[in-house]
Each structure stands twice: as structure tokens, then as C-alpha cells.
Amino acid sequence: MRTPQPQEARCPGRDRRARKLTPRPGAPRVDSEWPPTTAVVGGGIAGLAAATVLAERGVRVTLYEREPALGGRLAGWPVHLRDGTTVTMSRGFHAFFRQYYNLRELLRRTDPGLERLTGLADYPLRHSGGLRDSFRRVPRTPPWSALGFVALSPTFGIRDLARMNPVAALPLLDVRVPDVYERLDAVSARDFLESVRFPEAAYHLAFEVFSRSFFADPRELSAAEMVLMFHIYFLGSAEGLLFDVPNEPFPDALWEPLAGYLRGHGADVRTSTAVENIEPTADGCFDVTTGGEERRHDTVVLAMDTAGLQSVVSRSPRLADAPWRDRVARLRNAPPFLVSRLWLDRPVARDRPGFLGTSGYGTLDNVSVLERWEGEAHRWAARTGGSVVELHAYAQSEDAAREVEQKRLLAQLHAVYPETRAATVVDEQHEWRADCPLFPVGAYMDRPTVRTSDPGLMVAGDLVRTELPVALMERAATSGFMAANALLDRWGVAGQTLWTVPDRGINAALRGLARWGRNRQTPAPRPSNQVP
After folding, report:
1. C-alpha–C-alpha distance, residues 465 and 177, integer Å
2. Alpha-carbon distances, residue 428 vs 79, 265, 339, 363 (angstroms)
3. 3 vs 25, which has greater pLDDT?
């Protein structure tokens, strides 16, 4: 199978200031006579990214995934509805933003034109008090994006603007990694916004929606993560806040084609195979144990969620070193979240958007009308005359009663889309999960990096500290590429070119203003739990 070559000169999006990170020069492939072997543990985005780059360059890859399907938190699985239809259930809606350069480069392996993604026309937000925001008409290029949002948003009145603290807001104008963490990791997202004195309506309608996309309460989320997010999606990138979504369920659109691609490059893809422990050997290799079977690999990439990583590391007492194992043990998950997917016997109103972010509707964070963009849901709705609606509730209380929360979400759907009160729920599926990483105040330096103390052991995933301006799914893909590149560099093989949004503010005058503000402020104190 032909390996697509990186388009070194091509800007991956519309932002001509996107940052290119070229790997070290090297051979195109490993020695074919004695190729090294790598165990990639975890078949989510990070693991698939690492496995793809390694397999393309001739490394003998074994990909271990404990679940029956690939995709990690974007996996899908079949469920049977009461009407006899087999459909795909998942953990819910995910937005593929245009600045997800590395994730999109991974998907281009099997979909060069990204034809299996479709763009949604808007990113609308709605508050229960009647306020609405939209990003469809907001300019995409900073600083006009910020000015346009303020001008078009009903949440920024003249009095609101007059009482804001512009000096406190200056960090938003020139975000650099890791500087943003050195200054703001000790502050909560909520406290930062209060220091800026953002209008309360703007906070609830826009910024709370953004911060909760990390599945965390703003009072617990690091302000550095939130400010970095503003930079990536709004203030530092010219890609804008509109996004794409897969036009079929995740397995069909994304992961089954990529699994075939990996097998075509000689990778051994093992689903339903949980890694129990990993034992370093005296000769620098690793014995990987799964269900009583042990296989030796030259190198390992750990690309699991927090609980999975902690489980394997706790059963592998000689892996890396003790300080690293302690840091892994201290990682935390975000609070639980609920995804409710409802099959209704009648359609929602025609003018309802495919996705709507909400605030002020209890625990409801967003509503998706799947038949607006997903082929499988569209076919069911066309056949039955109904609708497929999905509801998300992030940052649930640990002791929340699931059935109670499911009923509350349905009630809030009726408040947001009143026509659904007359609809009958002909089928429903609910997912209650608590496996997304938490980025709490003061914990940045305690997060694992891609490299470990063992040169043959790498870590990848959205929980990893990359020192690059990436987040969420893009952090997963980027860290997977970085893990593969680090191993390939050992063998003298060129890795994957990486792209990120600009690593600083887009406007020189605004960057100078931000530097002036930094000089006026004292850095935030380093939290006591950080590792020097």
C-alpha cells in the first residue's frame, strides 16, 4: 500500500501563520531486514496516530485495544432499537475544528479530501434568559474575530465594556506555551474571568460553554488551559470557530478505514485485548502481558486514558522510574458526564440547528439533532418521520442519580425545543462516563510528557503535556505523532511533520501590549504540588 507523503510546503488550513514543526532529517524507513517492534497500548486517537506513523515507516507495530472497537472516546458500537433497527451508539458529539491540523492529517490517510467530514453552518449558543450568540458572522482572523464577537454579541453592552479590567485581560492577547502555564496555572478559570470582570451574561453564554468542553467546573479548571483554548479557537488562529463533523458514525467514517490502512502496512491490530502489565527487560526491551500471553517488543507507546494508564503502571512496578510512576498515580479524571440519545416519533422543527450550545438550562450543555448531519440518523428519520436527538450534560456531581439526571435532560430539551413535548421517545440510549482527564489548578508540571526516563517508553494522549498550543482531540493526535517521532529519531528515521496554530498573538501591537501587562504583574506562585 502506498504511503502518502507529507506535503511539506502546504499550509494545512487558511491560517498562513500556522506553525510548522519539521522533524529531524533521516531515512524514509527503518532497516527492512531487522525492523524494530513497537507495542502501542490504546486504540484511541493518540494510539492510532502513533501506530500509523510507525507502521508507515516499516516498524512492526502491534496495537493493543482493550475494547472491541477502535476510537477510544470516539468509539462506536452497535445497539438494537425496539423497531428492529441496528444503529451505532457512541459517547456523543465531537467537533472537528479546522485548526485540528494533525488530527485531520491522520484522517487524510484514508480520506485525502476529508469528504467523510461535513461542515455545520454555525456554532450557536443560547441562554435560558433569551440571549443568543452565533459565530457564523464573526470574522475569523484575529483581532477582528474578537472585535466582531463583541460587536455582534448581545452580552457585551457599553456599560459592561466600561467596567471590564483590560489589564487583567491582556494575557489573552499573547499566549505562549509554556509561559501561559507559568503565569496562570495557579489560577482557576472562574477566578481569571472574574478578575477580567467579563459581563455575567457573556460568562454564562460563551465562556462557561467553552470551559465546560473540558468536562470540568470552571472553578476547578486551570485558567491556563482556558486561556490557551481561547488562543487556539478564537484569539490566536484565523481558522475560526466553525467546525466539521463526521457524516457517518465514527467507526464507518473514521476508524474502520484507518484500521484497514494500518493492517495494509503490516500492523497487528488487536481489539478486545487488554494489556495487564509491562516488564522492562535487561536488554532494554519490554515484555507485554495480555491475558496470559507475553510478547516482547523493542519499544512501547502508552496511549490510554487516565484510568487505563494508572492501572497498567500500577501493575508494572519497574516501568520507567518511581517519580514518573508517582506522577501517573496523581492524575485525576474530570467529573462524570452524561450523554442521552433519544429516538423521537416526530421531527424537531426544521429550523433547529445541527448543534446548539446551551447555558442556564440546568445541567444541559448542548443539543444535537443528528439527522442534520449523520447519514445513519438521517436514514432512520427519513424512514420513520422522527428525529434523533442527543443531549450532553458535563461535570455532573459524583453522587448524581443517573435516572434522575436523564429525566432532567429530557425536561430541559422540552424547554429548549418546545415541540418535543408532544413527541414520544420510541427508544433511548444513555452513556454515563467519567474517564476524561482533568486539568486542575496547579497541576500542569505534574502531568507526564511524551518522553519518559526510559528512552524506549513513550506516552501519548490528551492528558499529556506537549509544550505546544494544542488541546482535546488535537492534543491526542499531536502527542501520538510526537511519540512516534521520538522513537523514529532513535533509529535515524524521519518522522511526521507537525502543525499548530501560531505560538503567539497574531498582532505585533497587541503582543507588545500583553508584554507591557506582564511586566506590570507578578507571576503566579508555583503550586506546592508541582515538580520542578
Report:
1. 10
2. 10, 39, 11, 19
3. 25
Between 173 and 476, the more confident residue is 476
Does domain 75-121+243-248+334-433 fall under CATH 3.30.450.40? My reply is no
Angstrom CA distances, 244 to 178, 198, 350, stand at 29, 29, 20
- Altogether, the residues listed in the chain come to a count of 532
**pLDDT tens-digit map of 117-143:** 999 988 888 888 887 877 777 667 776
What pLDDT is recorded for position 149?
A: 65
Residue 3 backbone dihedrals phi, psi, to 5 degrees: -95, 120
Q: Which amino acid is at 127?
A: H
Question: Which of the listed CATH numbers 3.40.50.300, 3.50.50.60, 3.60.110.10, 3.30.70.920 matches domain 19-72+249-333+438-500?
Answer: 3.50.50.60
- Global pTM value: 0.92
Q: Quote the Cα angle for 122-125-128, to 5°.
A: 150
pLDDT tens digits for range 208-230 = 666 566 677 788 889 999 899 88
How far is Cα 496 from Cα 504, in angstroms, rounded to an integer? Answer: 23
The pLDDT assigned to 525 comes to 41
CATH topology of 19-72+249-333+438-500 equal to that of 75-121+243-248+334-433?
Answer: no
